[in-house]
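Input record, target 12 of the design panel.
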């Protein structure tokens, strides 16, 4: 399956949900949170589960000793990141947003300049703060932020959205006028991402982007680097996905027993995002090394 097909699947799915929103159809928050957790597990985790194979291809792992060191370092970074969030949630959230913008911008590294990719990634992440400010604030407070801190982050996200939107629209106008636009589907994807960030609810918007665009495209790139087809790449990722799920279930069971009166939805949401933060920090460092290696090659 080509990257174009992922774009087409994303746009088709997005249009279906947009029609449902226009028809005033909405799912209960509980179903959205459970759906997010399931989607991230099934569609999202495999794209990071191949990090060990990527490390081997970069010659970071070349023996049992180096393999143990890599796994230990990867796990330590993830655990320290989670502990950092628990101690300094507002700072960790800002760091997570910045890291995510940098990481997601690589999705378009071959189709637009770096500055435009950073702008589009910022739009994707910050767009929900424009219209769904109350929803985003409640999400942030569920992630251990105070209301004041959540509102401050929200203001920053809105400012960043409009600033990066202006720059990205300049890039689009320049691209169209130069008549160098490569493919209508690419342009459609970019426009749909902007619209999705404003129209769909934050959890649905993030789930569709992360699971239908970012993860499959990354998996496609990794399979190309490892010189294997995607089905083989998915099979290689299964043991790591199962191990992550096992650990996540253990954490979930532990915190659910001592959730201090919090709803189960809040517990799931909190640990999905905090867990993603931990895994993203380790994953992003490795992928950054890989992309630098690509440029140097």
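The sequence produced for target 12 reads:
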């Amino acid at each position: 399956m080509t990257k174009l097909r992922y774009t087409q699947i994303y746009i088709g799915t997005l249009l279906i949900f947009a029609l449902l929103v226009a028809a005033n159809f909405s799912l209960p928050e509980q179903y959205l949170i459970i759906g997010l957790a399931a989607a991230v597990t099934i569609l999202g985790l495999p794209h990071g589960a191949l990090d060990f194979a990527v490390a081997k291809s970069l010659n970071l792992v070349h023996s049992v000793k180096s393999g143990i060191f890599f796994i230990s370092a990867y796990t330590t970074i993830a655990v320290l990141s989670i502990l950092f969030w628990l101690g300094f949630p507002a700072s960790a959230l800002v760091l997570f947003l910045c890291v995510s913008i940098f990481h997601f911008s690589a999705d378009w590294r071959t189709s637009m300049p770096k500055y435009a990719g950073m702008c589009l990634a910022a739009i994707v992440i910050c767009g929900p703060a424009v219209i769904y400010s109350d929803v985003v604030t409640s999400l942030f407070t569920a992630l251990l932020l105070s209301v004041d801190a959540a509102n401050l982050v929200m203001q920053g996200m809105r400012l960043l959205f409009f600033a990066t939107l202006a720059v990205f629209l300049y890039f689009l106008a320049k691209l169209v006028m130069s008549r160098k636009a490569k493919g209508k589907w690419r342009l459609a994807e970019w426009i749909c991402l902007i619209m999705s960030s404003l129209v769909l609810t934050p959890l649905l918007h993030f789930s569709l982007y992360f699971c239908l665009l970012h993860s499959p495209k990354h998996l496609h790139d990794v399979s190309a680097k490892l010189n294997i087809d995607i089905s083989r790449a998915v099979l290689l990722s299964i043991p790591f996905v199962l191990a992550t799920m096992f650990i996540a279930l253990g954490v979930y069971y532990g915190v659910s027993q001592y959730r201090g009166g919090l709803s189960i939805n809040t517990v799931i949401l909190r640990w999905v995002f905090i867990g993603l933060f931990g895994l993203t920090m380790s994953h992003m460092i490795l992928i950054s090394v890989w992309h630098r290696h690509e440029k140097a090659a």
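The longest helix spans residues 264-296.
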